[in-house]
Amino acid sequence: MEGENCSSVTEFIFLGITNNTVNKVTLFTMFLLIYLINLLANLGIITLIRMDPQLHTPMYFCLSHLFFCELCYSTAIGPKMLVDLFAKKKSISFHGCALQFLVFCIFADSEYLLLAVMAYDQYKAISSPLLSVVSMSSRVCSLLMAGAYLVGMADALIHTALAFRLCFCGSNESNHFPVIYLHLSSSPALIYR
């Protein structure tokens, strides 16, 4: 990376979607409503699965973790987006951006791995219905869940560490919300538009 112009970025500034107050209120109301419905639906389903003993099966165990992942990765981004709609200084620190990216990636990656675990559970239930209770015991389910979260965390750490080690070129201002584009030229650079 010798010879590159790597400037140090300490924060990213969001210019906002619109300056029109009416549009801001409409967007805020719409985003808040979507976020609250998402939050209440996920928490409601998780609570229902935990409280009803008939739903203590491997499939519902996986579903509760799937809804937990969705709850966490929408919470990683949603509140900051809502606050920045009306904030005078719409910015996020470099480390805050990295942390937000890491949390989002952990739960997004874990969600995909949990879908694979659920597919395996269904495969076992279809291929050997009488043995599926034994082969997918609560211990096996717990180990598969722990494995999904650990692999999701490792993958997210690798992606975050590699993405935030790259050079940031151009302006640190974003017209809307941060979108990171990888510019692959002779020397990789991270362009933040």
TrEMBL record:
TM stretches of this protein: 25-48, 60-78, 98-120, 140-164
Task: Report the locations given in the UniProt record.
Answer: Membrane
Q: Which UniProt keywords apply?
A: G-protein coupled receptor, Membrane, Receptor, Transducer, Transmembrane, Transmembrane helix
The keyword Transmembrane belongs to this UniProt entry's keyword annotation: yes
Highest taxon in the source lineage: Eukaryota
Q: Name one GO cellular component term.
A: membrane
Q: Name one GO molecular function term.
A: G protein-coupled receptor activity
Q: What is the protein's given name?
A: G-protein coupled receptors family 1 profile domain-containing protein
Organism of provenance: Capra hircus
